[in-house]
Amino acid sequence: MSVQEYLDKHLLSRRIEDAVNAAVRAKTSDPVLFISNHMRKAVPSVITKVKARQILDSRGIPTVEVDLHTNKGLFRASAPSGASSGMYEAIELRDGEKGTYLGNSVNRAVKNINEKISVALVGMDPTLQSQIDQVMIDLDKTENKSELGANAILAVSIAACKAGAAEKEVSLHKHIADLSGQTSPLLPVPVFTLISGGKHAGNNLAIKEIMILPVGSNTFEEALQMGSETYHHLKAVITETYGAHGCNVGEDGGFTPNISSLRDGLDLVQKAIGRTGYNEKIKIAIGVAATEFCIGTKYDLDFKTPNKSGQNFKSGQDMIDMYKELCADYPIASIEDPFDKEDWEHVKYFSGLGICQVVGGDLIMSNPKRIERAIQEKSCNSLLLKVNQIGTVTEAIEVVKMAKDAQWGVVISQRSGETEDSFISDLSVGLATSQIKAGAPCRGERLAKYNQLLRIEEELGDQAVYTGEKWRN
């Protein structure tokens, strides 16, 4: 398109005249600045450039960062990454060259953005999120985004979402709410990691994490205070019991005392909660990640202790009995991935007991087909949404709608490999999900999410609604 064609298409001569007249009417002291700002608002925003680079995530492993430019600014986003990936989730593209970042570099994904995605998106309206995401999906042509890489597609999708919000001159969470048709923003209950185990820590604890939910607070700000205070009381409790070395932290900030028993960990957390005085206001959650220690049809709770591995095998029914006992003895309100990702029989039975929230993470991997099956079979009652498992903002919105239509809870989740990008905070508020899991109230990449929620609550003012006791609704 020639310059003259562009001027004619966007009626720029008329817009400039309108801007000059507006400056005269306003009697502005700086007409040039006034006219410039007036024109910025008058000219529709389009994507002018998409530039990607390789950065490091919180584990020191490469990931993708994108700068998406419009004629109204630069919008940056990055893709998180998990410790493990499954066959049902979108595929992040890595180079596989062992001599560079041990095979984890993402130069191919970066190249795909700079040479393919950028060309396809330049000139598009950033407010048209679904169209932008569909262009990338069509360009990739695979079901699991393995051609361009889910890490490439997601980073661009998030950056475009931020640009769309800027074009509409609204907050990011408001733009997301508009995209999803959600009318009422909601501050989620934070699900804080306190003790880490499984693949996230070097101790002998088989399960992935012990967490708390401050459901009894009245605001998100108060919930964050409760989580922080409990975390620091737990540090003191662990120091008294195991010494200062027990206060090392895992990948998402949870403490890693050298415990092998889940009950030992729950006792530590229960003691810390008792010291805060918030006993009735805090619930406990456990993330089991049972797939990590499932061997055939048995579960090896000593899989991290070589000299004991194989001596503590449990059947699916044994695991159900264990969970029932734990829920009776502790204020456990939520269990994530209590069984292997293919153990549909036992998770369905356990969920049907109605003892607690049963969260499907590895079971469904944010995959629409797996979610549909879980809904039909009533295999769980809450979705753990990890945006990199699905790959675009539009698809994330769609699966949240599926979960809500089934009266499920929704937990927006971090990954073990995080960046300082706080997008999931706005996503949680915009989609009015009841819970957000962003790790411990510690480490910058985790606190970036919680601190952004503080800002959103402040911005909403009297309109801010904290989920609190209605976290299961």
Give a quick rundown of the structure.
The chain has 473 residues and is α/β, with parallel strands linked by helices. The protein has 16 helices and 14 strands. The radius of gyration is 24 Å and the shape is globular.
- How many DSSP-defined strands? 14
Please give the CATH architecture of the largest domain. Alpha-Beta Barrel
Cα Rg? 24 Å
The average pLDDT is 92
CATH class of the largest domain: Alpha Beta
CATH fold descriptor of the largest domain: TIM Barrel
Main sheet characteristics: 8 strands, mixed, barrel
Q: Give the helix level as a range of percent.
A: 40-55%
Strand and helix order? HHHEEEHHHHEEHHEEEEHEHEHEHHEHEH
Task: Outline the low-pLDDT stretches.
Answer: none
Strand order of the largest sheet: 4-5-6-10-11-12-13-14
Count of individual domains: 3
Structural class: alpha/beta
- General form: globular
| Percentage of residues in DSSP E strands | 15-25%
CATH superfamily of the largest domain: Enolase-like C-terminal domain
Report the end-to-end length measured between terminal Cα atoms.
52 Å
The number of helical elements comes to 16
What topology emerges from the helices and strands here?
Layout: H1 3-9, H2 12-26, H3 31-42, E1 47-56, E2 62-70, E3 73-78, H4 107-121, H5 129-140, H6 150-168, H7 172-180, E4 189-196, E5 209-213, H8 220-242, H9 262-276, E6 283-287, E7 294-295, E8 298-300, E9 313-314, H10 316-329, E10 332-336, H11 344-352, E11 357-360, H12 368-377, E12 382-385, H13 387-390, H14 393-405, E13 409-413, H15 423-430, E14 435-439, H16 444-460
Parallel strand pairs: 4-14, 6-10, 10-11, 11-12, 12-13, 13-14
Antiparallel strand pairs: 1-2, 2-3, 4-5, 5-6, 7-8, 8-9
